[in-house]
Amino acid sequence: MIAGVEIENFTAFGRLQLSLSPRVNVVIGSNGTGKTHLLKAIYGLALAGLPASADRSAKEVAADISGKLLRLFSPEESKIGALRASGANALTRLSLVSSDETRVAISFGSRSQAVQINVDAGGTGHELQPVFIPTKEVLSLVRGMRHPDHDRATVEMIFDDGYIDLAELLVRPGFEDEAASLDEDPRLSSVVRELVDLVGGRYRWTREGAFRFEPGRYEEKADPARSKSKAAQAYQDSTVTRFVPRGEQSLSSGMTAEGYRKIGVLHRLLSNGSISPGATGVLLWDEPEANLNPKLMKKLVQVLLELSRNGQQIVLATHDYVLLKWLDLLIDKGKDDHVRFHALYRDPDSQKLAVESADSYSLISKSAISDTFAELFDEDVARALGGAKP
Protein backbone atom coordinates (compact mmCIF):
# COMPACT_ATOMS: atom_id res chain seq x y z
CA MET A 1 0.00 0.00 0.00
CA ILE A 2 1.13 3.55 -0.70
CA ALA A 3 1.19 5.52 2.55
CA GLY A 4 2.46 8.88 1.35
CA VAL A 5 3.42 11.01 -1.64
CA GLU A 6 5.86 13.91 -1.72
CA ILE A 7 6.25 16.21 -4.74
CA GLU A 8 8.59 19.16 -5.11
CA ASN A 9 9.00 21.46 -8.13
CA PHE A 10 7.12 19.18 -10.53
CA THR A 11 4.77 20.44 -13.28
CA ALA A 12 2.12 22.57 -11.50
CA PHE A 13 3.35 21.76 -7.99
CA GLY A 14 5.81 23.70 -5.86
CA ARG A 15 5.67 21.47 -2.82
CA LEU A 16 3.00 18.93 -1.92
CA GLN A 17 2.75 16.23 0.73
CA LEU A 18 -0.09 13.74 0.80
CA SER A 19 -0.96 10.98 3.27
CA LEU A 20 -3.03 8.29 1.57
CA SER A 21 -5.67 5.99 3.02
CA PRO A 22 -5.03 2.27 2.38
CA ARG A 23 -8.67 2.07 1.25
CA VAL A 24 -10.22 4.87 -0.87
CA ASN A 25 -8.80 8.31 -1.63
CA VAL A 26 -10.73 11.02 -3.46
CA VAL A 27 -8.94 13.99 -5.02
CA ILE A 28 -11.08 17.05 -5.72
CA GLY A 29 -10.37 20.58 -6.91
CA SER A 30 -11.12 23.15 -9.58
CA ASN A 31 -9.81 22.82 -13.13
CA GLY A 32 -6.10 23.53 -13.26
CA THR A 33 -5.32 22.43 -9.71
CA GLY A 34 -3.33 19.36 -10.77
CA LYS A 35 -5.64 16.42 -10.07
CA THR A 36 -4.66 14.45 -13.17
CA HIS A 37 -0.99 15.38 -12.74
CA LEU A 38 -1.09 14.02 -9.20
CA LEU A 39 -2.55 10.69 -10.33
CA LYS A 40 -0.03 10.39 -13.16
CA ALA A 41 2.85 11.23 -10.79
CA ILE A 42 1.75 8.44 -8.42
CA TYR A 43 1.45 6.06 -11.37
CA GLY A 44 4.92 6.92 -12.70
CA LEU A 45 6.50 6.55 -9.26
CA ALA A 46 4.81 3.20 -8.69
CA LEU A 47 6.16 1.99 -12.04
CA ALA A 48 9.63 3.20 -11.08
CA GLY A 49 9.46 1.01 -7.98
CA LEU A 50 8.79 -2.21 -9.89
CA PRO A 51 11.70 -4.67 -9.90
CA ALA A 52 14.01 -4.16 -12.89
CA SER A 53 15.12 -7.02 -15.10
CA ALA A 54 18.47 -8.45 -14.10
CA ASP A 55 19.92 -7.63 -17.52
CA ARG A 56 18.97 -3.94 -17.31
CA SER A 57 21.58 -1.45 -16.10
CA ALA A 58 20.67 1.41 -13.76
CA LYS A 59 21.25 3.83 -16.66
CA GLU A 60 18.82 1.93 -18.89
CA VAL A 61 16.17 1.82 -16.16
CA ALA A 62 16.53 5.57 -15.58
CA ALA A 63 16.15 6.21 -19.32
CA ASP A 64 13.02 4.02 -19.43
CA ILE A 65 11.38 5.84 -16.51
CA SER A 66 12.31 9.22 -17.98
CA GLY A 67 10.68 8.23 -21.26
CA LYS A 68 7.62 6.94 -19.43
CA LEU A 69 7.16 10.25 -17.58
CA LEU A 70 7.52 12.20 -20.83
CA ARG A 71 4.94 10.01 -22.56
CA LEU A 72 2.56 10.30 -19.60
CA PHE A 73 2.67 14.10 -19.38
CA SER A 74 3.41 14.93 -23.05
CA PRO A 75 5.30 18.24 -22.66
CA GLU A 76 6.14 20.19 -25.82
CA GLU A 77 9.85 19.52 -25.35
CA SER A 78 10.91 15.90 -25.17
CA LYS A 79 13.37 16.36 -22.33
CA ILE A 80 12.85 15.53 -18.70
CA GLY A 81 13.62 19.07 -17.57
CA ALA A 82 10.40 20.21 -19.28
CA LEU A 83 8.47 18.60 -16.40
CA ARG A 84 9.94 20.94 -13.80
CA ALA A 85 7.73 23.58 -12.20
CA SER A 86 7.99 26.99 -13.83
CA GLY A 87 10.60 29.17 -12.12
CA ALA A 88 11.94 26.37 -9.93
CA ASN A 89 15.55 26.75 -8.78
CA ALA A 90 15.98 23.58 -6.71
CA LEU A 91 15.90 20.01 -7.99
CA THR A 92 12.61 18.32 -8.85
CA ARG A 93 11.92 15.51 -6.41
CA LEU A 94 9.10 12.97 -6.22
CA SER A 95 8.78 10.09 -3.79
CA LEU A 96 6.38 7.39 -2.64
CA VAL A 97 6.49 5.80 0.79
CA SER A 98 4.75 2.47 1.33
CA SER A 99 3.11 1.19 4.49
CA ASP A 100 6.24 -0.88 5.21
CA GLU A 101 8.38 2.27 4.79
CA THR A 102 9.82 1.27 1.44
CA ARG A 103 10.66 4.49 -0.41
CA VAL A 104 10.92 5.14 -4.14
CA ALA A 105 12.38 8.53 -5.08
CA ILE A 106 12.96 10.28 -8.40
CA SER A 107 14.92 13.49 -8.89
CA PHE A 108 16.15 15.57 -11.83
CA GLY A 109 17.27 19.09 -12.73
CA SER A 110 16.62 21.45 -15.60
CA ARG A 111 19.53 20.08 -17.64
CA SER A 112 19.21 16.43 -16.67
CA GLN A 113 19.26 13.88 -19.47
CA ALA A 114 17.39 11.36 -17.32
CA VAL A 115 15.96 11.00 -13.84
CA GLN A 116 17.87 9.61 -10.89
CA ILE A 117 16.04 6.73 -9.15
CA ASN A 118 16.59 5.71 -5.57
CA VAL A 119 14.71 2.69 -4.22
CA ASP A 120 15.06 2.02 -0.51
CA ALA A 121 13.99 -1.62 -0.67
CA GLY A 122 13.27 -2.11 2.99
CA GLY A 123 10.08 -3.97 2.08
CA THR A 124 8.01 -4.98 -0.93
CA GLY A 125 5.47 -2.17 -0.92
CA HIS A 126 6.12 -0.99 -4.48
CA GLU A 127 6.54 -4.30 -6.23
CA LEU A 128 2.91 -4.39 -7.37
CA GLN A 129 1.74 -3.27 -10.82
CA PRO A 130 -0.36 -0.09 -10.63
CA VAL A 131 -3.36 0.52 -12.89
CA PHE A 132 -4.26 3.95 -14.27
CA ILE A 133 -7.67 4.53 -15.88
CA PRO A 134 -7.79 7.91 -17.71
CA THR A 135 -10.84 10.12 -18.11
CA LYS A 136 -11.92 9.00 -21.58
CA GLU A 137 -12.97 5.41 -22.18
CA VAL A 138 -10.50 3.18 -24.00
CA LEU A 139 -12.43 0.07 -25.13
CA SER A 140 -13.47 1.59 -28.46
CA LEU A 141 -9.96 3.00 -29.04
CA VAL A 142 -7.95 -0.19 -28.53
CA ARG A 143 -8.32 -1.42 -32.10
CA GLY A 144 -6.92 1.80 -33.57
CA MET A 145 -4.18 2.10 -30.95
CA ARG A 146 -2.88 -1.44 -31.55
CA HIS A 147 -3.58 -1.85 -35.26
CA PRO A 148 -0.46 -3.17 -37.05
CA ASP A 149 -0.94 -0.76 -39.97
CA HIS A 150 -0.88 2.31 -37.71
CA ASP A 151 2.38 4.11 -37.08
CA ARG A 152 3.38 3.73 -33.43
CA ALA A 153 4.93 7.21 -33.23
CA THR A 154 1.69 8.78 -34.46
CA VAL A 155 -0.35 6.80 -31.93
CA GLU A 156 1.94 8.04 -29.15
CA MET A 157 1.51 11.64 -30.33
CA ILE A 158 -2.28 11.30 -30.08
CA PHE A 159 -2.52 9.25 -26.86
CA ASP A 160 -0.41 9.63 -23.76
CA ASP A 161 0.88 6.50 -22.06
CA GLY A 162 -2.02 6.41 -19.61
CA TYR A 163 -4.22 5.32 -22.53
CA ILE A 164 -1.63 3.11 -24.20
CA ASP A 165 -0.77 1.23 -21.00
CA LEU A 166 -4.44 0.63 -20.25
CA ALA A 167 -5.02 -0.69 -23.78
CA GLU A 168 -2.29 -3.30 -23.21
CA LEU A 169 -3.88 -4.39 -19.94
CA LEU A 170 -7.32 -4.71 -21.51
CA VAL A 171 -6.17 -7.20 -24.13
CA ARG A 172 -4.44 -9.50 -21.66
CA PRO A 173 -5.62 -13.11 -21.98
CA GLY A 174 -7.72 -14.87 -19.40
CA PHE A 175 -11.10 -13.29 -20.04
CA GLU A 176 -12.67 -16.44 -21.45
CA ASP A 177 -11.41 -18.40 -18.47
CA GLU A 178 -13.19 -16.27 -15.91
CA ALA A 179 -15.66 -18.95 -14.79
CA ALA A 180 -12.90 -20.76 -12.95
CA SER A 181 -11.58 -17.61 -11.28
CA LEU A 182 -15.07 -16.52 -10.26
CA ASP A 183 -15.73 -19.81 -8.49
CA GLU A 184 -12.35 -19.78 -6.79
CA ASP A 185 -12.69 -16.21 -5.52
CA PRO A 186 -16.14 -15.25 -4.13
CA ARG A 187 -14.97 -11.63 -3.71
CA LEU A 188 -14.43 -11.37 -7.45
CA SER A 189 -17.68 -13.15 -8.24
CA SER A 190 -19.96 -10.65 -6.52
CA VAL A 191 -18.21 -7.59 -7.99
CA VAL A 192 -18.02 -8.95 -11.55
CA ARG A 193 -21.69 -9.95 -11.49
CA GLU A 194 -22.71 -6.48 -10.36
CA LEU A 195 -20.75 -4.81 -13.13
CA VAL A 196 -22.32 -7.03 -15.80
CA ASP A 197 -25.79 -6.49 -14.34
CA LEU A 198 -25.22 -2.71 -14.47
CA VAL A 199 -24.79 -2.67 -18.25
CA GLY A 200 -26.63 -5.88 -19.19
CA GLY A 201 -23.64 -7.68 -20.69
CA ARG A 202 -19.88 -7.79 -21.15
CA TYR A 203 -17.24 -6.63 -23.61
CA ARG A 204 -15.31 -9.41 -25.35
CA TRP A 205 -12.02 -9.21 -27.22
CA THR A 206 -12.54 -10.64 -30.72
CA ARG A 207 -10.26 -12.24 -33.28
CA GLU A 208 -10.63 -9.09 -35.38
CA GLY A 209 -8.69 -7.16 -32.72
CA ALA A 210 -11.58 -5.15 -31.26
CA PHE A 211 -14.03 -5.24 -28.38
CA ARG A 212 -17.68 -6.17 -28.93
CA PHE A 213 -20.52 -5.90 -26.44
CA GLU A 214 -22.30 -9.20 -25.76
CA PRO A 215 -25.68 -8.96 -23.96
CA GLY A 216 -26.18 -11.47 -21.16
CA ARG A 217 -25.61 -12.21 -17.49
CA TYR A 218 -23.76 -14.54 -15.14
CA GLU A 219 -25.63 -17.60 -13.92
CA GLU A 220 -24.81 -20.67 -11.87
CA LYS A 221 -24.83 -23.65 -14.21
CA ALA A 222 -24.44 -27.35 -13.49
CA ASP A 223 -21.02 -28.73 -14.35
CA PRO A 224 -21.34 -32.41 -15.35
CA ALA A 225 -17.69 -33.11 -14.56
CA ARG A 226 -18.00 -31.71 -11.08
CA SER A 227 -21.49 -33.03 -10.32
CA LYS A 228 -20.33 -36.62 -10.97
CA SER A 229 -17.43 -36.25 -8.60
CA LYS A 230 -17.67 -38.10 -5.32
CA ALA A 231 -16.34 -34.98 -3.64
CA ALA A 232 -19.42 -32.99 -4.58
CA GLN A 233 -21.29 -32.89 -1.29
CA ALA A 234 -23.34 -29.73 -1.78
CA TYR A 235 -25.05 -27.76 -4.51
CA GLN A 236 -22.25 -25.25 -4.84
CA ASP A 237 -19.74 -28.07 -5.29
CA SER A 238 -21.41 -29.19 -8.52
CA THR A 239 -22.04 -25.81 -10.15
CA VAL A 240 -19.92 -23.16 -11.83
CA THR A 241 -20.58 -19.52 -12.57
CA ARG A 242 -20.73 -18.88 -16.29
CA PHE A 243 -21.67 -16.01 -18.55
CA VAL A 244 -24.88 -16.82 -20.42
CA PRO A 245 -25.47 -14.77 -23.62
CA ARG A 246 -28.96 -13.34 -24.02
CA GLY A 247 -29.16 -14.33 -27.67
CA GLU A 248 -29.27 -10.81 -29.03
CA GLN A 249 -26.82 -9.59 -31.65
CA SER A 250 -23.51 -8.34 -30.27
CA LEU A 251 -22.50 -4.74 -30.94
CA SER A 252 -19.20 -3.05 -31.63
CA SER A 253 -18.01 -1.21 -28.54
CA GLY A 254 -18.30 2.13 -30.32
CA MET A 255 -22.05 1.58 -30.76
CA THR A 256 -22.65 1.35 -27.00
CA ALA A 257 -22.91 4.18 -24.49
CA GLU A 258 -19.59 5.60 -23.33
CA GLY A 259 -20.68 5.26 -19.70
CA TYR A 260 -21.23 1.53 -20.28
CA ARG A 261 -17.78 1.26 -21.81
CA LYS A 262 -16.25 2.72 -18.65
CA ILE A 263 -17.99 0.05 -16.58
CA GLY A 264 -16.77 -2.47 -19.15
CA VAL A 265 -13.15 -1.39 -18.59
CA LEU A 266 -13.38 -2.18 -14.88
CA HIS A 267 -15.09 -5.51 -15.58
CA ARG A 268 -12.44 -6.47 -18.11
CA LEU A 269 -9.52 -5.59 -15.79
CA LEU A 270 -11.03 -7.66 -13.00
CA SER A 271 -11.81 -10.59 -15.27
CA ASN A 272 -8.31 -10.92 -16.69
CA GLY A 273 -6.54 -10.32 -13.38
CA SER A 274 -5.06 -6.90 -14.16
CA ILE A 275 -6.87 -5.77 -11.01
CA SER A 276 -6.77 -8.34 -8.23
CA PRO A 277 -7.29 -6.91 -4.72
CA GLY A 278 -4.29 -7.67 -2.55
CA ALA A 279 -2.21 -8.97 -5.46
CA THR A 280 -1.95 -5.90 -7.73
CA GLY A 281 -1.02 -2.31 -7.00
CA VAL A 282 -2.94 0.91 -6.55
CA LEU A 283 -5.92 1.65 -8.82
CA LEU A 284 -5.85 5.26 -10.05
CA TRP A 285 -9.03 6.42 -11.81
CA ASP A 286 -9.38 9.90 -13.28
CA GLU A 287 -13.01 11.11 -13.29
CA PRO A 288 -14.85 7.77 -13.23
CA GLU A 289 -18.12 9.71 -13.43
CA ALA A 290 -17.40 11.19 -16.89
CA ASN A 291 -20.26 10.28 -19.27
CA LEU A 292 -21.74 8.00 -16.63
CA ASN A 293 -25.48 8.12 -15.95
CA PRO A 294 -25.97 9.38 -12.36
CA LYS A 295 -28.20 6.35 -11.72
CA LEU A 296 -25.15 4.11 -12.18
CA MET A 297 -22.97 6.00 -9.72
CA LYS A 298 -24.42 4.46 -6.57
CA LYS A 299 -23.70 0.96 -7.84
CA LEU A 300 -20.23 1.96 -9.01
CA VAL A 301 -19.42 3.37 -5.58
CA GLN A 302 -20.66 0.16 -3.96
CA VAL A 303 -18.36 -1.85 -6.23
CA LEU A 304 -15.37 0.37 -5.43
CA LEU A 305 -16.01 0.08 -1.70
CA GLU A 306 -16.27 -3.70 -2.01
CA LEU A 307 -12.93 -3.80 -3.82
CA SER A 308 -11.33 -1.68 -1.10
CA ARG A 309 -12.71 -4.00 1.61
CA ASN A 310 -10.82 -6.82 -0.06
CA GLY A 311 -7.48 -5.04 -0.10
CA GLN A 312 -7.59 -2.80 -3.18
CA GLN A 313 -6.15 0.69 -2.61
CA ILE A 314 -7.97 3.24 -4.78
CA VAL A 315 -7.24 6.87 -5.69
CA LEU A 316 -9.97 8.73 -7.61
CA ALA A 317 -10.06 12.25 -9.02
CA THR A 318 -13.52 13.73 -9.50
CA HIS A 319 -15.57 16.86 -10.13
CA ASP A 320 -18.88 15.18 -9.40
CA TYR A 321 -21.01 15.98 -6.35
CA VAL A 322 -23.21 12.88 -6.77
CA LEU A 323 -20.18 10.57 -6.70
CA LEU A 324 -18.80 12.37 -3.65
CA LYS A 325 -22.04 12.14 -1.72
CA TRP A 326 -22.51 8.44 -2.48
CA LEU A 327 -19.00 7.82 -1.21
CA ASP A 328 -19.88 9.80 1.90
CA LEU A 329 -23.25 8.08 2.43
CA LEU A 330 -22.36 4.48 1.61
CA ILE A 331 -19.41 4.13 3.98
CA ASP A 332 -19.99 1.23 6.36
CA LYS A 333 -17.86 1.62 9.48
CA GLY A 334 -18.78 -1.94 10.46
CA LYS A 335 -16.84 -3.12 7.40
CA ASP A 336 -13.88 -0.85 8.19
CA ASP A 337 -14.59 1.42 5.21
CA HIS A 338 -12.35 4.44 5.02
CA VAL A 339 -12.44 7.31 2.52
CA ARG A 340 -9.95 10.16 2.70
CA PHE A 341 -10.72 13.34 0.79
CA HIS A 342 -7.92 15.51 -0.63
CA ALA A 343 -8.88 19.00 -1.85
CA LEU A 344 -6.33 20.66 -4.14
CA TYR A 345 -6.58 24.44 -4.26
CA ARG A 346 -4.54 27.47 -5.21
CA ASP A 347 -3.44 29.60 -2.28
CA PRO A 348 -4.95 33.09 -2.81
CA ASP A 349 -1.79 34.86 -1.65
CA SER A 350 1.06 32.83 -3.14
CA GLN A 351 -0.99 31.29 -6.00
CA LYS A 352 0.83 28.02 -5.27
CA LEU A 353 -1.05 24.74 -5.20
CA ALA A 354 -1.80 23.31 -1.79
CA VAL A 355 -3.83 20.42 -0.41
CA GLU A 356 -6.28 19.97 2.45
CA SER A 357 -7.04 16.39 3.52
CA ALA A 358 -9.75 15.05 5.81
CA ASP A 359 -11.41 11.73 6.59
CA SER A 360 -14.88 13.23 6.13
CA TYR A 361 -16.13 15.24 3.18
CA SER A 362 -17.99 17.58 5.57
CA LEU A 363 -14.63 18.63 7.06
CA ILE A 364 -13.23 19.83 3.72
CA SER A 365 -13.47 23.60 3.50
CA LYS A 366 -11.68 24.11 0.17
CA SER A 367 -14.25 22.47 -2.09
CA ALA A 368 -15.32 24.18 -5.30
CA ILE A 369 -17.84 21.37 -5.82
CA SER A 370 -19.79 21.95 -2.60
CA ASP A 371 -19.54 25.74 -3.03
CA THR A 372 -21.03 25.51 -6.52
CA PHE A 373 -23.89 23.25 -5.43
CA ALA A 374 -24.62 25.56 -2.48
CA GLU A 375 -24.79 28.49 -4.91
CA LEU A 376 -27.07 26.50 -7.21
CA PHE A 377 -29.36 25.63 -4.29
CA ASP A 378 -29.51 29.29 -3.21
CA GLU A 379 -30.41 30.41 -6.74
CA ASP A 380 -33.14 27.75 -6.96
CA VAL A 381 -34.64 28.85 -3.64
CA ALA A 382 -34.44 32.50 -4.71
CA ARG A 383 -36.41 31.79 -7.89
CA ALA A 384 -39.01 29.83 -5.91
CA LEU A 385 -39.40 32.83 -3.59
CA GLY A 386 -39.96 35.20 -6.47
CA GLY A 387 -36.44 36.52 -6.81
CA ALA A 388 -35.73 37.23 -3.16
CA LYS A 389 -32.35 35.90 -2.01
CA PRO A 390 -32.66 33.38 0.83
Counted by DSSP, the helix tally is 12
Low-confidence stretches: 232-236
Structural class: alpha/beta
CATH level-4 homologous superfamily of the domain at 1-130 and 281-364: P-loop containing nucleotide triphosphate hydrolases
Helix content: 25-40%
Tertiary shape: globular
| Cα radius of gyration in angstroms | 23 Å
Average pLDDT metric: 86
Strand percent estimate: 15-25%
Q: Within the CATH hierarchy, at the fold level, what is the topology of the domain at 1-130 and 281-364?
A: Rossmann fold
- The CATH architecture classification of the domain at 1-130 and 281-364 is 3-Layer(aba) Sandwich
**DSSP, total strands:** 15
Domain AAA+ ATPase: 21-349
InterPro entries: AAA+_ATPase (IPR003593), ATPase_AAA_core (IPR003959), Bact_Antivir_Def_Nuclease (IPR051396), P-loop_NTPase (IPR027417)
Pfam family, one: AAA_21
Protein name: AAA family ATPase
What can be said about this structure in brief?
It holds the Pfam family AAA_21. This is AAA family ATPase. The longest helix has 17 residues, at 368-384.
Name the features.
alpha/beta; five-stranded antiparallel sheet; AAA+_ATPase; six-stranded mixed sheet; single chain; 12 helices; 390 residues; Rossmann fold; AAA family ATPase
